[in-house]
Amino acid sequence: MANITLTSLSQVKNVDTGKVFKDLHLDLQFGIPRGIAYFDDNVSSDALADFDEQAIRNSLITLFNTTKGQKILNPEYGSGLQRFLFLPVSNDNGELLGDAVIDGIRRYEPRVIPDKVTVYKDEDNNRYEIDIILNVPALKNNMILLVGSLNNSGFTFI
Predict the structure, then answer these.
(1) How far apart are CA 111 and CA 98, in angstroms?
(2) In whole angstroms, what is the distance from residue 61 CA to residue 134 CA?
(3) Is CB count within 10 Å lower at the N or C end of the chain?
């Protein structure tokens, strides 16, 4: 079986830049890495990357929009938030949604610790707004507030 190695996603912990986490940019694009001369003949383009908080956001977007069984090599991966799209918007379903968010983060995002998840129902627009407060021990600014929305298009961060 062939192996694919992406050296641009190796462990970061760069003292010069202060970056700790690195992940592919979700809208896969290719570009010239920052800090390299544009007209150098030895420069090749590489997949763009996101760092630290944005890398964590990318991971959570993928987690929250993936249904269990969708990843063939890891069939247990996913949060199953899509199941709430076809249920009535209610306090009880919002509470179950919050539990699913916390469970997904604890199981599949080891870089963070969920501190608080608050779900607000928006019955008029048939959606939920979700505030997520995360503790990220490896980052200097170790608290992150993410505000997301779950609607008929799936999960997105606002």
Answers:
(1) 19
(2) 14
(3) N
Q: Which amino acid is at 121?
A: K
Task: Report the share of the chain in percent with pLDDT over 70.
Answer: 74
Specify the CATH number for 7-157; select among 3.40.190.10, 3.10.450.40, 3.30.9.10, 3.40.47.10: 3.10.450.40
- What SS3 class is residue 74? coil
Best CA proximity match to 81, nearest among 22, 130, 13: 130
Query: pTM of this prediction?
Result: 0.77
- φ, ψ dihedrals at 123, nearest 5°: -65, -35
Domain ranges of the chain: 7-157
- Assigned token pair, 111: 């870089």
Q: Residue 157 pairs with which residues in a beta bridge?
A: 148
